[in-house]
Each structure stands twice: as C-alpha cells, then as structure tokens.
Amino acid sequence: MADHYEALGVSRDATEDQIKKAYRKLARELHPDVNDAPEAQERFKSVTHAYEVLSDAEERRRYDMGGQDQFGGMGGFGFGDIFDTFFGGGQARGPRSRAERGQDALIRVDMTLDEVVFGAPKSIEIDTAILCDECSGSCCRPGTSPSVCDICRGSGSIQRQVRSLLGNVMTSQPCGACRGFGQVIADPCNKCRGQGRVRSRRPLELNIPAGVEDGLRLQLSGQGEVGFAGGPQGDIYVDIAVRAHEIYSRKGDDLHCTLEVPLHDAVLGNRAKIETFDGAIEVQIEPGSQSGDQIHLKHKGVTHLRGSGRGDLFVTIQVNTPSKIDSKQKELFRQLAEFRKSDEIKLTKHTQSQYAKRKNK
Q1: Is residue 127 assigned to a domain?
Q2: How confident is the model at residue 47 (pLDDT cuts 50, 70, 90)?
C-alpha cells in the first residue's frame, strides 16, 4: 500500500490546511470527470483514501504510529483474520455503517435550596457537535453523493485466499480503499470536512424536578452530541450541585433552622414571624421554652422527588442568655434569684433527647 503522505505529496508534519489544499489540487487534476486516463482513476482513489485517513486526527495518529491505517493491519492479515480462519471466518460481513453514535456528555448544574424545594427550569449553553446544516450529515458536498467503491464493489470487504496450517482458506477483511464502508466520498463537504457534523454552542432547556439532592445525576437521553456522519445523538448526564443555604439545612426532605429567642420571651412566651420558602409564617413560642425545644411545621419542607407531598420544617429554639447587662438589670435578676431560691445547680445524666420537644402543628 502506498504511503498516504507520498500520495498527497506532503511531508509527515504537514498541517491540516496543507493536507486539505494538497487534496483539493490533486482531486481537481485526477477527478474522472476531468481526467479519463486509466492511471488517473486509480491514483484518484489512492489520493481520496489518503485524505480520508490524514484528515481525521485519530486515524492519522493511528496511521503515524503503525505506518498503516486501521484497515491495513499486519500486512493485510491481522489477528482478527487469523481467528476467523480457524473459527469459522471467511464470510463477507457486508459494508459497515459510516454513521456512529455521538459521545455522552457530563455537565454540572448549580442550584439553590429554594429551587430544590419546588423545582426550577434552567437554561444553559453547551459546547457540542450538531448536524452539519450544509450536507445534513451525508458528509458529501451538496449536489454530490457517495460512489460505490470500485475495489470491493460496495461489499465493504475483500476476500482473498491464504495459505495456513489447515491448507488454503478464504478470508475476508475490510476493504482498504473505502475503509469498509462500501462507498467512497470523492467530494467531502467543505463545512464539516466530511464529518457530517460541526462543533457549535447550543442552548439546552432543563426542567429540574423538585426534591433533587446534591450529587444526584440525571440522564437526558438523546440530548448529547450528534454522531459521526449524522449518527444518533448521545446522552447528557446532569450532575446536581446544591449550594448551602445561610439559614436552612436539609435532612432527607425535612428542613431545619434555629430560632434565637431572648430570655424573657422564652420565660413569658411570645409569637414570632419567620421567613420560610412559603413566605412569612407566625409561630408560637411557648412560655418556659428551653434551648433545644422544637416547633414542628408540617408540609413546609422539600417536595418529595418521588411521590407526592412535602417534608416538614423543624424550628429549634435557642435561648439567648444576655452577656452584658447594666446595674438596674442586675438588680432585677438578683430579685428574681431571691424569689427562686429553691432552684438548684446540679448534674444530670446526658441523653440525646435531653430537651423536651414541643410541637406546633
């Protein structure tokens, strides 16, 4: 097989543009519509095949490493052919599809806790591969179409007789001229360079359901990049990242917060207005409230991701003891202490449920 760089007349360190220019020049000289010489037709096939290999970054890397493209193998007889020879090979497989499925993509979406409680739409832009609007995924220049490979006559494979330990057997291998596709693209699309797709940024509209958690991964089937030659789209995986809230924390689908209560309100009781994700709500502080007591508000938590309904909201009371008081306030506390001489300072056993929980339903 002729060296692809020699076929195009470029050096091995030629740039992508140099390879493209060399191919266009030779294609204009050797195209069957322009040059009807028999040797020109064979050379045109060789030049086209060389361009298909060297214009693809991955194919070119593979070719540079092994000196042949992926269909050359071990002198035209690779490990797969040896395996087929001894275990039922030799049958023509037929041309393979040029279209391939697009790759999957992983993106991260940041959310606030209030968006998690009720769910929220998200509009983002992603860098991906989309269908080429010039060739519509055909990989051909508009007005042209792939031609049947003259070497394999559209079968995508070449059969040959080889000598093995078992005698002469027939083997089948991908056609080197068309790379197993059964067709040759003589005039690739200029916009996508024969890929059938182009890189672009496109908007992606997401509807994040309520109840998602930090680290949850959502799958969007068929929303990823378009495959080679207009192949089916891959999937997009969305990783949810929930930012910490300055007041509320989440445990399961329940929400928790702390309500700082002055000492006199804890002793005498009072009503307080708190801001929740449902708006302002008035809660009752019972007389004699202790630090650790909880006010329980049903159905004010996070919406369940699966099923209906919502979690609850737990407001934990923290009684604030004044650290700075004036002389008059000190005298009032001394008088209170005189009235409550029976109160003792004593040790008690520590338990997880040390404080009683009052619930406001």
Answers
A1: yes
A2: confident
With 0.90 as the threshold, say if the pTM is over it: no
CA–CA gap between residue 143 and residue 33 (Å, rounded): 15
Give a yes or no: residue 358 inside a domain.
no
Q: Summarize pLDDT for 176-193 with one digit per residue, the tens.
A: 888 889 999 989 999 999
Are the CB atoms for 220 and 126 separated by under 8 Å?
Answer: no
Sheet holding 217-220, edge to edge: 105-111, 236-242, 217-220
List the helix and strand counts (H, then E) for the chain.
8, 15
Domain assignment of residue 48, yes or no:
yes
Distance CA 108, CA 348 (A): 50
Q: What is the spatial distance between Cα 203 and Cα 69, in angstroms, rounded to a whole number?
A: 37
pLDDT in tens, 91-133: 445 788 899 999 999 999 999 999 999 999 999 999 999 999 9
In total, the chain counts a number of residues equal to 361
